[in-house]
Amino acid sequence: MNGFRPPSPDAEPGAGGLAPAAVGDAGVLDIDGADRIGTGLVRLVRLIERAYALHQIEHPDGVERATYVLLVHLVKDGPYRSRALADAVHSDPSTVSRQVAHLVRLGLVERVTDPDDGRAVLLVATDEGRRVFAENRRLRNEGIARMLADWPAADRDRFADLLTRFADEMEKTRAADGPPGAAGRR
Question: Is the pTM of this model over 0.85?
């Protein structure tokens, strides 16, 4: 089942059914399906935040999640200039600068001279930064694998494909329009 339910002939637009629109395969927005997904995402974010808060209590000297994202980009994608890193994580350069300073103090990132432009500085993950990333990734992957162990392989593969597709669409939408639900906040 694809989650699409056509509106009943007597349903009024937006009254618990689907509101007509000129988008999607069927020419309508699936508002009910979007609500189910949105509700699930809110629940998932809360669960992740709760788990992260508990982790921070148990490991008070750890790296904050927003700061850790910078390390992930540096490990996976190589050296960045600070401004380019801010763009990659969709963040403000001054915020990224403070977060990078924290990673440098922890010995997870270092600043090196850009070989192509001696005036510029590149941010590079250190060996310790790569080790921390690898350990965190291993723990995350083991946790997810345990959680999905009872799912059929086809379901796990389909979920991974759909989640990746959803994240890709969210990035495209954010780049074009800002975050979903941002109407009235601009």
Answer: no
Whole-number Å distance between alpha carbons of 176 and 26: 23
Tens digits of per-residue pLDDT, 86-119?
Answer: 999 989 999 999 999 999 999 999 999 989 888 9
Per DSSP, what are the bridge partners of residue 111?
A: 123
Three-state secondary structure readout of 67-109: HHHHHHHHHHHCCECHHHHHHHCCCCHHHHHHHHHHHHHCCCE
Q: How far is CA 56 from CA 59, 60, 61, in A?
A: 5, 5, 8
Q: What is the pLDDT of residues 124-177, one digit of tens each?
A: 999 999 999 999 899 889 999 999 999 999 999 999 999 999 999 988 887 776
Q: What whole-number distance in Å separates Cα of residue 183 and Cα of residue 5?
A: 26
Q: Number of helices and strands (H, E) in the chain?
A: 6, 2
Query: Quick count: other Cβ atoms within 10 Å of Cβ 177?
Result: 11
Q: Which of 174, 67, 60, 71 is nearest to 128 (CA)?
A: 71
Nearest in space to 38 (alpha carbons), one of 166, 173, 139: 166
